[in-house]
Amino acid sequence: MLFYSFATYGNAGILREQVCKYMCPYARFQSAMFDKDTLVIAYDEARGEPRGGRSKTENPEDKGLGDCIACTLCVQVCPTGIDIREGLQIECIACAACIDVCDQVMEKMDYKKGLISYTTEHRLAGKETRVFRPRILVYAILLLALVSGVVWSVNQRVLLRADLLRDRNALYRELPDNQIENVYTLKLINMDFKPHEYKIEVLNNDDIRILVSPEPRLEAEEVGNFILRMQAPASAGRGSMKVDVRFSTLDEPIIERIVSARFLMPFE
C-alpha cells in the first residue's frame, strides 16, 4: 500500500503529463499501427485556417479568416499540453477534451461543430475512408489469437501450487529401524474457491514413504505450511536420488502438481 500510494502520488502529483510523454508506451504502440484510414483526433485545417480573433457578429469570410478563433482553449484543456492544431502528436492520449471544448466554442459562435473531431486523414483530404483493409484483418487475427490464448491458459490453470524445500540443518537422519529420513518444508497454496484435502505420493520410487504433519487440508484460497518427511530403507540406494512427488486433491484428482526433489542417502 505504501509503494502504490507513493507511486500514484508521484505520477499524478509530481510527474503528471511527463508520465504520458515519456513513460507511457501507449503512443509508441499506436503510432506504429496508424495509417491514413485510422480514426484519430484531428483538427480540420482547411476549415479552421487562417486563425484569428473576431466577435460573434463579424463574418469570418469578410476578414479572410477560418472558423478557428484562436482561443487556445484546446491547448489549455489538453492534459499533455499539446496543440492539436499542429497535427497529431505522439503525446496525444486521445482523451477528446479538445473536441469537447472546441464544440462548445463553435456552439457559442453559431458555427458548425466538428472543427476538432474524431476523423481520418483521408476524410480530411476529401477522400473516402476504407473500413475494411488488410491491416484490419491482420489485427483481428492477432487479437483472436491473443484472446484464445488467454481463455486457454485460464481453463488450463492448475488450482494448486506446491513448493518443497529441504531442511538445511541436516542432510539426512538415520533412524533406529535402519531407515533414512529426509525432512522438507512443504508449502501448499489452494487457488480454488472451495476447500480440498490432498493426497501426496512418490511416483518413481516404491521404497520411499511419506509422512506429513499436520493433515494436508486447505480452505478456499488458503496457504498452508507443512512438515514433510520422506523415509526409505538404508538399502534402497546410495548418494543423491531424484524423487518426483505428486500432490493431488482427493475429490478432484485432475487438480494435481508434480514437484521434483532430492532424497539424500549415505554415500558409503
Quaternary state reads: single chain
Query: Which sheet architecture does the biggest sheet show?
Result: 5 strands, antiparallel
C-alpha termini separation: 54 Å
SSE string, helices as H and strands as E: HHHEHHHEHHEEEEEEEEE
Report on the architecture of this protein:
It contains 8 helices and 11 strands. The protein has 268 residues and is α+β, with helices and mostly antiparallel strands. The longest helix has 22 residues. The model has no long low-confidence stretch (mean pLDDT 91).
Question: In a few lines, what is going on in this structure?
Answer:
The protein folds into two domains: 2-146, no CATH class; 160-264, Immunoglobulins (Immunoglobulin-like, Sandwich), CATH 2.60.40.10. The protein is 28% helix and 28% strand. The protein has helices spanning 2-15, 17-23, 26-33, 45-48, 73-76, 97-108, 121-124, 134-155, and strands spanning 40-43, 116-119, 160-166, 173-175, 179-190, 196-202, 209-213, 217-218, 223-233, 240-249, 256-264.
Topology (SSEs and partners):
Blueprint: H1 2-15, H2 17-23, H3 26-33, E1 40-43, H4 45-48, H5 73-76, H6 97-108, E2 116-119, H7 121-124, H8 134-155, E3 160-166, E4 173-175, E5 179-190, E6 196-202, E7 209-213, E8 217-218, E9 223-233, E10 240-249, E11 256-264
Antiparallel strand pairs: 1-2, 3-5, 4-5, 5-9, 6-8, 6-10, 7-9, 10-11
